[in-house]
Design brief:
Elements (H helix, E strand, L loop, with lengths): L7 E3 L35 H7 L30 E6 L4 H4 L6 H9 L1 E7 L5 H10 L19 H7 L4 E5 L12 E2 L7 E2 L9 H4 L2 H4 L6 H8 L6 E5 L14 H5 L23 H20 L9 E6 L4 E2 L4 E2 L31 E8 L6 E3 L3 E2 H11 L18 H4 L1
Parallel strand pairs: 2-7, 2-8, 3-12, 3-13, 4-7
Antiparallel strand pairs: 1-12, 3-11, 5-6, 8-11, 9-10
The structure holds 2-acetamido-2-deoxy-beta-D-glucopyranose (NAG) (7 copies).
The site of one 2-acetamido-2-deoxy-beta-D-glucopyranose has 4 residues, from loops.
């Protein structure tokens, strides 16, 4: 096994970070998070960049901070005042980095924390959401909303410590709705149940008091300004804003009638190029969504102390040419070499392993710096970081201390 390169890069103001894949072999590789000391160059403050652009303006009033004295964080982390997770859909680094339709996302990548070699767990969407919230995809590789994940999830662990959580879902008809897999129940649907992970745990969806923690997204704005936002916030945009698409009524579709319904259909199967120019508009809508909601959080009185915003994608794109999804990590805590090829079928059981390489963006109030790591991480490392921050028991694969480390570069 070859060691892989781990680089902590500090890039000066406005300098562009070029992404270069780390070298690797075709074999399983362990994560190596031994961190060489960071450069002593002055660190760029990404929040200041947003301020200079007129996007960020600190709230004059701040909500009272929670007393975390009963929390014993692990791994050298400390409790997050709030952790906000934006889960976008089906776009990999190959599509996102430098994409002119995603100016805000690329600005974040260039001025805040960026895990350059971060992976989904598997395909399709739902099992990635489940992995990030319960520590395993439990052998699921499909989006069927008939699936029930009767497993302990992070909401259970947070509540044990008296900590609060919500899964805000854009376009859900009402809190805790589980009446259909999509809503409205016709071709104009914009909400998909498969993107709202906490609706799949029976101990939550069968308990009205807990299901109330899955409200429409509008409630986030109220909670931010009324100092009621929970510690753990999971945000599920609707399919017009998650960069994946799929409905007749998405603004991108109505403004640009030829927008494909699925990103997958954008691929030209002969030459593997994207031949549907209107996919650009779905990407723009996703970028605008983050451009709207991230400042809403940062400019609110709830953006206090050790608060962080995470932006990531469930999985990377589907590749029709190969009739498989793009390469990436398998179900487990292990992470493939970036050179893994689907021509090598020895790792494939059903053709749906590997979640693909996706960006992980970290906006930390206390460390708003352009920190780039090339360590190989996936959704389990993110889950473990949140568990460690709140001193929770480690769920599923996150208990594998040898393979699954916390994202210490961002959350020291
Ligand atoms: C891990 O990375 C560090 C820093 O790059 C390196 O010095 C060390 O040899 C690596 N360890 C292993 C086991 O690969
Ligand atoms: C990965 O593939 C690229 C392109 O073929 C090659 O240049 C590189 O050396 C490979 N890396 C490893 C570690 O095999
Ligand atoms: C890194 O920093 C630590 C603490 O300041 C110091 O003890 C250690 O020697 C440094 N290591 C290197 C390789 O510079
Ligand atoms: C970063 O910049 C913002 C805006 O100017 C400022 O409020 C904040 O204190 C700075 N944070 C750090 C850690 O330097
Ligand atoms: C979806 O995955 C579940 C396991 O979570 C399996 O039981 C079911 O048969 C799968 N459904 C489809 C349609 O593939
Ligand atoms: C779909 O249902 C919604 C909500 O009931 C309704 O507003 C909309 O007009 C319907 N669209 C179609 C195409 O039937
Ligand atoms: C791929 O094929 C399509 C249809 O034949 C063509 O329009 C497009 O220009 C090709 N793209 C590339 C990058 O060759």
């Amino acid at each position: 096994m070859k060691p892989f390169v781990f680089v902590l890069t500090v890039v000066a103001l406005f300098q562009i970070c070029f992404y270069a894949p780390a070298s690797g072999s075709r074999h399983w590789r362990q994560q190596n998070t031994t961190q060489p000391n960071a450069s002593k160059a002055p660190l760029e403050n990404g929040t200041q960049v947003l301020q200079q652009m007129g996007i960020y303006s600190e709230s004059k009033f701040h909500c009272p901070r929670r007393d975390f004295s009963h929390i014993q964080s692990k791994e050298g982390l400390k409790p997050f005042d709030h952790v906000f997770i934006f889960m976008m859909e089906n776009s990999g680094n190959d599509v996102i980095l430098g994409n002119e339709n995603m100016p805000f996302i690329n600005l974040l990548i260039q001025h805040f924390g960026f895990a350059a070699e971060y992976y989904g767990i598997t395909h399709t969407s739902l099992p990635n959401y489940i992995a990030l919230t319960s520590g395993s995809n439990w052998w699921s590789h499909n989006d069927s909303t008939k699936q029930i994940f009767d497993h302990t999830c992070i909401a259970d662990k947070l509540e044990e410590k008296g900590l609060r959580w919500k899964n805000y879902a854009q376009s859900i008809p009402y809190a805790g709705y589980k009446g259909s897999s999509a809503y409205p129940q016709n071709s104009s649907f914009v909400w998909l149940q498969e993107h709202v992970p906490f609706l799949f745990y029976p101990q939550i969806f069968l308990d009205p008091a807990r299901a109330a923690n899955i409200p429409p997204l509008e409630e986030l704005e109220q909670d931010l300004y009324s100092c009621n936002v929970p510690e753990y916030v999971f945000i599920s945009p609707d399919i017009c804003h998650d960069m994946h698409g799929g409905s007749d009524v998405c603004p991108a579709v109505t403004e640009y009638p030829n927008t494909p319904k699925k990103l997958a259909y954008c691929y030209n199967t002969k030459n593997n190029s994207r031949n549907c120019i209107n996919i650009n508009n779905l990407w723009k809508k996703g970028d605008e969504f983050l451009r709207e909601w991230i400042p809403k959080i940062m400019n609110s009185p709830s953006w206090t102390g050790n608060s962080v915003i995470i932006v990531t994608w469930d999985e990377a794109n589907y590749n029709e040419e190969l009739d498989v999804f793009t390469e990436g990590g398998p179900d487990t805590a292990y992470i493939y070499s970036t050179n893994f090829s689907f021509a090598d079928h020895s790792f494939l059981i059903d053709g749906y392993y590997g979640g693909g390489q996706v960006p992980l963006i970290v906006i930390s109030k206390e460390k708003p710096y352009h920190i780039v790591t090339h360590a190989k991480y996936n959704h389990y490392n993110l889950l473990k970081s949140i568990e460690a921050s709140y001193g929770l028991d480690y769920l599923g694969y996150t208990s594998d201390d040898r393979q699954v480390k916390v994202l210490h570069e961002f959350f020291g």
